């Protein structure tokens, strides 16, 4: 039955209110505030205490939507306790608001569910810590803009001054300050009497009140206030709080506001508006093209790092110079390059090699990833992106110690990122198919669902270093990153993007009515937005999205178009063997719908270094070109091949040998060879102080085409994909607080809490010679303990015992003894909900449960 039917049964504390809940309600509390279950509380009193701690309350307040938070803020400026009618008046005003009235039960229900408010509708109480955080004070103004009450503002005022104010407003004098303040408060709270008083006010005085009414309520005055201020001060409409400072009392402000605590209550979430509409098939095709580009970009990045990528900074991460080089290689901006690098890292395709000269390189998982179908490779990337807490958009910014945040470096984790990404995509799924949202409407919706920090005392500093717009920044990055990954096309969510987040259910939730008088989903008004799916759920959704994407990208081509200007045009994606070989033989000149490759002496030499011969290259081009091989290209290949390997470089420290001694003489005479430390050992051999790699690079810079050789004199074939890191696991996301407990954990926790509460609250009778206090474990002698336990085995009764474990921790338990032997008692422990064995010497005492409580 409700507390309204039985006022005497109204809870006197939060613990009693929790004790009156059923298991479903307690499970909802622990699910919405998982920090309360870590570790599992011993009983409901400890659960209530933990629910009132500052850290837990701050975390709960930060997860409220805007209207639910406004409801809590209104309770913080209301009387304690407050009635439902008083709370409704603070939110809807004297004139009432049907939309606010319809939304308030859901908001109040959410506060009750999260144990931030307790008590019946006639005695609503905000948890003390929440009231301290949300109540206005000079140091921490309330978002309501209200100031202190008359009683609080006059706390330090002299009795004589209070009596003067009472007399000036026409109230009868009293014998004490308390009754005078009470009568003054009643005057300010009475609409009719307050209106009569304001009708007498000069226009200038009314203007002063209008400037303070919506906050901040504090103002400055001189030692000799102007007449307009003196009129207000004499009647208590402004009260001094410190020398030179006055405040507008809360009761006066509420009368001037027509009873409203907030200037603009926001009971309904702002809608996500569509900025453009496209045909769904066009959206899917555009997104598929972007998805294929994403795969190609990741492959191009890791192909560029095959031989070992950039060095790892001493503090971890990628240097600014290396990020710029990567951006140039990918033909993108630096922030976009940082995104692709971080994405490959999050997917486990990229890591540091762990060597003494630590560098970044592809992992063995990259080779496995490349062999999978395109749709599955895409699913792996987007799954990693959705779950990653690393936030590439922060690269280039500063941390709390003013250090630059680098790609792949520390300090990029933001726990809110997975939730914001998933929520943004869910909001996009609520729009009609093919509709692209207006970004500002998405941000407005997110700000309503999770208002920026700073709405209450202690909340503003929780995100130091990020600012209160971190979630908005992540949301903006999500919109652009989803487009680059092919989850959206032209700003609209594609079909495979909808499947990725389980969009059908999301669309039903978003499509529910949201007008006045309609019943809103509880999630819109009181409960926080749903948490991101678990890794297993996300993997299942990605597996469902992959088949939708699979038929959309264009089929890979097995040919290119060779042109007379030493270029080749790939009119679409190429088959992997063709793309790999062409990537060695030519340089990418431009990318887009068609990729343009350019053949140069250096690129042809690269193919020859990889073990190809001139005839191999001619045959390859002939087989894969829809146009004849141009003569300039054939000449280029033959010319480079003719000179390739004419010089041989080996390790002596290094040497150069050539059958033509005139070529060696030419090298010695070249001033550019001075840094190589060359000297002639024989007519056909030069020795060098530089190593083989440096010698090769120096000779190539001089225009020669040397080839490396082994100690046996064979040409060394360079492999571009030789370097891999040891097996690496992807970086683990950094969770935002404790994880949401699953049903199994909730069931076990509730059983333990209920049993512990039974042990702590069950009435009990002292055993012979014992008189345990209600809050302390019982104390009995060893003989009395043994006799009572043995008797309970025969009668089957339950006992209340005090027990000290091996670490010295004392606890109270309710047990049903089964047998006693060898100095041990075996019993069913109601506290732990299992059969346990206890040494008798660790039982401090026993007490029988009162009749009817077993």
TrEMBL record:
Residues 506-542, 757-780 are annotated as: Disordered. It comes from the Bacteria. Signal peptide: none annotated. Keywords: ATP-binding, Helicase, Hydrolase, Nucleotide-binding. Residues 506-517 have a biased composition (Low complexity). Residues 560-682 form the Helicase XPB/Ssl2 N-terminal domain. It holds the Pfam family Helicase_C_3. GO terms for molecular function: helicase activity. Residues 784-846 form the WYL domain. This is Helicase-associated domain-containing protein.
């Amino acid at each position: 039955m409700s507390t309204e039917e039985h006022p005497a049964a109204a809870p006197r504390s939060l613990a009693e209110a929790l004790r009156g809940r059923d298991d479903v309600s307690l499970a909802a509390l622990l699910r919405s505030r998982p920090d309360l279950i870590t570790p599992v509380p011993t009983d409901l009193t400890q659960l209530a205490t933990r629910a009132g701690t500052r850290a837990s309350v701050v975390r709960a307040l930060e997860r409220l939507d805007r209207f639910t938070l406004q409801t809590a803020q209104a309770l913080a400026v209301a009387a304690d306790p407050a009635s439902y009618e008083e709370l409704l008046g603070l939110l809807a005003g004297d004139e009432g608001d049907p939309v606010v009235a319809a939304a308030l039960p859901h908001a109040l229900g959410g506060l009750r569910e999260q144990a931030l408010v307790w008590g019946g509708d006639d005695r609503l109480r905000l948890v003390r810590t929440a009231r301290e955080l949300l109540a206005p004070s000079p140091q921490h103004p309330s978002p309501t803009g209200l100031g202190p009450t008359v009683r609080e503002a006059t706390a330090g005022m002299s009795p004589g001054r209070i009596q003067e104010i009472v007399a000036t407003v026409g109230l009868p004098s009293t014998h004490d300050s308390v009754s005078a303040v009470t009568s003054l408060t009643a005057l300010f709270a009475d609409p009719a009497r307050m209106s009569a008083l304001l009708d007498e006010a000069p226009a200038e005085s009314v203007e002063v009140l209008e400037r303070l009414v919506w906050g901040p309520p504090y103002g400055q005055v001189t030692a000799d206030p102007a007449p307009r201020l003196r009129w207000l001060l004499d009647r208590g409409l402004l009260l001094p709080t410190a020398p030179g400072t006055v405040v507008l009392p809360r009761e006066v402000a509420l009368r001037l506001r027509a009873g409203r605590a907030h200037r603009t209550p926001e009971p309904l979430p702002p809608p996500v508006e569509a900025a453009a509409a496209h045909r769904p098939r066009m959206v899917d095709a555009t997104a598929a093209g972007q998805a294929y580009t994403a795969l190609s970009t990741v492959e191009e990045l890791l192909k560029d790092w095959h031989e070992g990528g950039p060095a790892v900074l001493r503090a971890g991460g990628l240097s600014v110079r290396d990020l710029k080089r990567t951006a140039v290689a990918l033909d993108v901006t630096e922030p976009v390059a940082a995104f692709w690098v971080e994405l490959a890292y999050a997917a486990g395709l990229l890591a540091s090699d762990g060597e003494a000269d630590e560098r970044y390189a592809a992992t063995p998982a990259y080779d496995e990833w490349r062999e999978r179908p395109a749709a599955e490779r895409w699913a792996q990337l987007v799954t990693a992106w959705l779950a990653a807490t690393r936030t590439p958009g922060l690269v280039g910014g500063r941390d709390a110690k003013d250090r630059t945040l680098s790609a792949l470096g520390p300090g990029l984790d933001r726990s809110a990122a997975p939730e914001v990404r998933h929520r943004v995509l869910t909001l996009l799924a609520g729009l009609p198919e093919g509709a692209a949202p207006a970004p500002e409407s998405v941000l407005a919706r997110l700000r309503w669902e999770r208002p920026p920090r700073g709405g209450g005392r202690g909340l503003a500093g929780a995100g130091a270093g990020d600012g209160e717009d971190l979630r908005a920044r992540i949301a903006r990055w999500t919109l652009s990153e989803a487009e680059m990954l092919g989850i959206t096309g032209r700003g609209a969510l594609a079909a495979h993007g909808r499947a990725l987040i389980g969009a059908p259910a999301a669309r039903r939730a978003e499509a529910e009515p949201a007008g006045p008088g309609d019943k809103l989903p509880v999630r819109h008004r009181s409960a926080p937005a749903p948490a991101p799916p678990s890794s297993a759920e996300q993997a299942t959704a990605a597996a469902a999205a992959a088949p939708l994407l699979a038929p959309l990208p264009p089929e890979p081509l097995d040919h290119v178009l060779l042109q007379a200007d030493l270029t080749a045009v790939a009119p679409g994606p190429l088959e992997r063997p063709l793309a790999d070989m062409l990537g060695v033989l030519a340089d990418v000149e431009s990318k887009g719908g068609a990729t343009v490759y350019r053949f140069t002496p250096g690129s042809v030499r690269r193919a020859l270094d990889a073990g190809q011969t001139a005839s191999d290259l001619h045959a390859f081009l002939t087989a894969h070109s829809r146009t004849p091989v141009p003569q300039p290209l054939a000449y280029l290949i033959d010319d480079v091949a003719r000179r390739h390997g004419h010089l041989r470089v080996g390790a002596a420290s290094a040497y150069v040998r050539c059958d033509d001694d005139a070529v060696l003489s030419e090298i010695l005479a070249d001033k550019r060879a001075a840094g190589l430390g060359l000297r002639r050992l024989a007519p056909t051999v030069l020795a060098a102080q530089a190593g083989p790699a440096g010698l090769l690079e120096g000779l190539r810079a001089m225009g020669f085409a040397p080839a490396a050789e082994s100690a046996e004199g064979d040409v060394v074939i360079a492999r571009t994909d030789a370097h891999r890191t040891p097996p690496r696991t992807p970086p683990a996301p950094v969770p935002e607080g404790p994880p949401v407990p699953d049903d199994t954990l909730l069931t076990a926790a509730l059983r333990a809490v209920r049993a512990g509460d039974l042990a702590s609250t069950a009435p009990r009778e002292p055993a012979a010679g014992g008189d345990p206090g209600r809050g302390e474990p019982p104390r009995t002698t060893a003989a009395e303990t043994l006799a009572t336990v043995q008797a309970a085995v025969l009668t089957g009764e339950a006992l209340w015992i005090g027990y000290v474990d091996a670490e010295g921790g004392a606890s109270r338990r309710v047990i049903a003894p089964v047998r006693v032997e060898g100095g041990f008692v075996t019993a069913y422990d109601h506290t732990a909900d299992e059969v346990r064995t206890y040494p008798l010497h660790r039982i401090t005492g026993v007490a029988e449960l009162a009749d009817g409580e077993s």
